Amino acid sequence: MQVSEILQRYNIQPNPLKDQFFLTNEEVIVKIVDFADLNKKDTVLEIGAGLGTITKEIAQRAGRVIAFEVDKRFKPILTKLPDNIELHLENAWNYVQLGGKVPYKKAYNKVVSNLPYSFAEPFLHNLTFLNYDKVILVVPLKILKKLEHGIFGSFFKVDVLFTVGKGNFYPTPRTNSVVINLVKLPDPIQTKNLGLFLRQYIYQHEGQLVKNSIMEGLIKYHQLVYGILVTKNQARKIISDSGIDKIHLDNKPIKHDVYEIVSEKFNNNLWNKKQPLEQIK
C-alpha cells in the first residue's frame, strides 16, 4: 500500500510545518538501514517513527527498537508493528536528555532516524555528550551544512552516504535530503589536541563565561594528558597571554566565532608540545 493510501485510510493529513515528510521508496529505506550494520545485539533509537516504515525494517534486524512518535494519530498504525519495538507516543526530548537511559530501560547503542528538522539541533547537542556505536540519519541539506561548518564539526566527522531526492518523500519537501553517518571524532585527550578539547569543553559548558570554561579546560587537560597540576592563576596567565579579546572571554559562547578563535590560539602550537611546564611557569 502506498504511503498516501495509508494516510488516507487512517484519515491523517501530514503537516509539513511539523516536519512530517514520509519516505515512500522501499529501496531507499532498506539502503538506509543497511548502513547501520544491525544485529540482534543492537538496541536502536528512532525519533519520528511516523508510519513505521523505517521502524519495521530496523526491527527485522535489531534485537530491540526504541521508537518515539509525538503525533498520536499514528498509534493505530505503529501498534501493529513487531513486538521487539518499544513504542513511546511522546516527545523524545526527556529521553535523549538522559543519555538514552530511563528507569528499567536498556540504553540504545545505535541511532537510525529520519530526523525531524525541529529536533535535529537539540538532539545533536545531546549526542556530543554520549558514546555510541553508530548514528545513521536522514537530514535536510541545511542540517548537513550546519554539521559541516558549525560547532558540531568539533565533535563529529560527517560521512555523506547518499542523497535522497525530494521526490522520495510524501508530501514533497522543498529540498533534497542526505543520509549521513555521524562518526565521533577521536578523544582529544588521547590525541593531545588542546584546541579541539577546549572547543568541546566550551560548548559543553555553554552556560558559563568563556574565560571560566577555558580556565577549567586548561586545568583538566594538563592533568589528564601530562599529569600536571595547573593552578587557576597559571591558567588565567595562559588565557591572558593567548591574545583572545575580552569581548569573547567575558561572555557566554553565544557567537560561534569564539570556537574558531580559541582553536586558532591553542591548536597546533607550543601548547601541544611535550614540555607544557615551560609554557605555564
Please provide a written account of the structure:
Pfam families: RrnaAD. Belongs to the class I-like SAM-binding methyltransferase superfamily. rRNA adenine N(6)-methyltransferase family. GO terms for molecular function: RNA binding; rRNA (adenine-N6,N6-)-dimethyltransferase activity. Residues 28-186 form the Ribosomal RNA adenine methylase transferase N-terminal domain. There is one protein chain. The protein is α/β, with parallel strands linked by helices. It folds into 2 domains: 3-184, Vaccinia Virus protein VP39 (Rossmann fold); 189-280. It is built from 14 helices and 9 strands. The protein has a 7-stranded mixed β-sheet. A two-stranded antiparallel ribbon has the order 1-8. The radius of gyration is 22 Å and the shape is elongated. The N and C termini lie far apart (72 Å). The mean pLDDT is 89.
Percent in helix: 40-55%
- The CATH homology group name of the largest domain: Vaccinia Virus protein VP39
Given as residue ranges, the uncertain stretches (5+ residues, pLDDT < 50) are none
Instruction: Report the total helices.
Output: 14
Q: Structural class of the secondary elements? A: alpha/beta
Q: How many beta-strand segments?
A: 9
**Amino-to-carboxy terminus distance:** 72 Å
The total domain count is 2
Supply the CATH class of the largest domain. Alpha Beta
Mean pLDDT: 89
CATH topology of the largest domain, what is it called?
Rossmann fold
Binding site for S-adenosyl-L-methionine: 23, 48, 69, 114
GO molecular function, one term: rRNA (adenine-N6,N6-)-dimethyltransferase activity
Family: Belongs to the class I-like SAM-binding methyltransferase superfamily. rRNA adenine N(6)-methyltransferase family.
Keywords: Methyltransferase, RNA-binding, S-adenosyl-L-methionine, Transferase
